[in-house]
Amino acid sequence: MAMARGAKHHYMNYIVSSERCGDLHVHVQGEVSQQEKRACFLTVHDLGTNHHSFLDFVNHPCMQEIKDRSIFVHVDMPGHHDNADNLPDGFEYPSLDVIGEDLVTVLDFL
Predict the structure, then answer these.
(1) Alpha helices in 1-110 (DSSP H)
(2) What is the dihedral of CA 6, 11, 13, 16, to 10 degrees?
(3) Are 27 and 41 in contact (CB under 8 A)?
(4) 53-67 burial: b if 16+ Cβ within 10 Å, else e
(5) Alpha-carbon span 79 to 76, nearest angstrom
(6) Which side of the chain, N or C, has fewer Cβ within a 10 Å radius?
(7) Which residues pair with 73 in a beta bridge?
(8) C-alpha to C-alpha distances, 18 to 44, 64, 68, 87, 96, nearest whole angstrom
């Protein structure tokens, strides 16, 4: 597990090892220690983007009330995290079913 605090937006970074997707970069906005008292949203980015699209969305002023009462868990898929190397030749990208099953690992980690 690696942890770091994001500079522009306030969030914590983790690297979570999953069984079939490999290392997933996870970015958490909100206090994980408050998860029993807050709504939790798990986000997965669209093709060609990463967690930054959700950070910008959650940090928009119109989201402030929801942000104050929630925890947002943004997951970067393989090869989409900041400064990611190209995926190796022959890498078989996980199916949506596999990704969905491995996201449970992220939730269990937190």
Answers:
(1) 51-58, 64-68, 96-109
(2) -160
(3) no
(4) ebbeebbeeeeeeeb
(5) 8
(6) N
(7) 28, 42
(8) 15, 32, 29, 16, 14
Both tokens of 97, joined, read: 């079913």
What's this model's pTM, rounded to 2 decimal places?
0.82
For 69, the token pair is: 């009462």
Which tens digit of pLDDT belongs to each residue from 42-92? Answer: 998 877 777 888 888 898 999 999 999 999 999 998 877 888 788 889 888
Length of the chain: 110
Residue 76 in tokens: 């970067």
Q: Please report, as a single letter, which amino acid is at residue 70.
A: S
Yes or no: say if 102 and 20 are a contact pair by the CB < 8 Å rule: yes
Q: Can you tell me the distance from the alpha carbon of 21 to that of 39, in angstroms, rounded to the nearest whole number?
A: 26
Could you tell me the two tokens for 13?
Answer: 């970074």
